[in-house]
Inverse folding.
């Protein structure tokens, strides 16, 4: 049986999860299964990286753009100076 304080924490967690603006990803790694293999995408304080050849040559690719779209509004963006 759950105690009342844990029930309150579970309810708060559900509410927080619905309010995406509470979250800001600073750094993470994610494996993206592309059409031609798996690609490691990383994000670190506003900087993207992917191990695909296209990213190496262009600084952006479909894998980084897909993750960016998935987490829209939840990524840390450093202030522009």
């Amino acid at each position: 049986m759950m105690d009342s304080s844990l029930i309150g924490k579970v309810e708060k967690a559900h509410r927080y999860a619905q309010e995406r603006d509470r979250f800001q990803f600073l750094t993470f790694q994610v494996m993206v299964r592309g059409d031609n293999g798996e690609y490691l995408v990383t994000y670190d304080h506003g900087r993207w990286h992917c191990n695909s050849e296209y990213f190496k040559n262009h600084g952006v690719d479909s894998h980084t753009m897909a993750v960016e779209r998935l987490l829209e509004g939840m990524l840390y963006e450093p202030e522009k100076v």
About this structure: Residues 4-18 form the longest helix (15 residues). The radius of gyration is 17 Å. Strands lie at 27-34, 37-44, 47-50.
